[in-house]
Specification:
Strand order of the largest sheet: 1-2
CATH architecture of the largest domain: 2-Layer Sandwich
Order of helices and strands: HEEHHEEHEHEEHEHH
Structural class: alpha+beta
Oligomer: single chain
Length: about 230
């Protein structure tokens, strides 16, 4: 009795192992158990393909920043025509027609400063310094009797220079003071002195139709190739 029970248990276990082996390793092969029953393979499970949906990437649009240009107001200068063969000559003639009245050829003593101011209807109360270096109420140094932009630049050690690439040889600077500027024939204007009447030098800077006269450092004058007078940079 016990022997037949063990035999039946062995057959059951053997059948179960056979079914497991067939289903796991060879689903296409037909197997039979010990009792002769046919074991059909288990068909493989086929899953439907997964549909991938791409989500579009939305990049936020930003408006470009608005460029704001601030305009700085400067002292008025003669309005120059920008085209035409005679435009520069016409501009130079217009400036020359309104030239400053000179009481002398460019002396730098206090009396001549006062005389030039009176001749041109200027405020003589601004002429308070002496010949040479002076100091204004704000502590800034200036050169000569008159405190203006040129006299402060001179006191700061800057050089009077002309950009000869921009110069049109109109002669306006020479008309202000021949003591400081020269215009050779068929050439460009150039400073011939670094000291002189600061009122007339400032007049020349403001009257130049192409604004090519500047006060600059020695290094800038050398780097830009500006004319300052041959003896200054040698």
């Amino acid at each position: 009795m016990l022997s037949r029970f063990r035999q039946g248990l062995r057959e059951t276990v053997k059948s179960a192992l056979t079914e497991r082996r067939v289903g796991a390793n060879d689903s296409l092969r037909v197997a039979t158990n010990s009792a002769g029953a046919t074991i059909l393979p288990v068909p493989p499970v086929v899953l439907p393909p997964v549909e991938r949906v791409s989500t579009p990437v939305v990049v936020p649009h930003e408006e470009p920043p608005t460029l704001v240009i601030e305009h700085t107001a400067y002292a008025e200068r003669p309005t120059l025509p920008l085209a035409g063969s005679g435009s520069l000559a016409a501009a130079a003639a217009a400036v020359a027609a309104a030239k400053i009245v000179h009481a002398d050829t460019g002396s730098t003593d206090l009396g001549h400063y006062l005389a030039r101011a009176k001749a041109n209807g200027r405020d003589v109360s601004a002429i308070t310094g002496a010949v040479g270096l002076n100091h204004a109420g704000d502590g800034e140094a200036y050169w000569g009797p008159l405190d203006n932009e040129s006299s402060r630049a001179k006191a700061a050690g800057k050089l009077l220079a002309i950009d000869q690439w921009e110069c049109i040889s109109c002669g306006t600077c020479v008309e202000q003071t021949e003591q400081v500027f020269v215009l050779p024939a068929d050439a460009k204007a150039s400073p011939i002195a670094q000291d002189g009447p600061m009122d007339l030098i400032q007049d020349a800077i403001e009257a130049c139709p192409v604004t090519c006269i500047h006060w600059v450092s020695k290094g800038e004058a050398t780097a830009r190739g500006l004319a300052t007078g041959a003896a200054v940079l040698s």
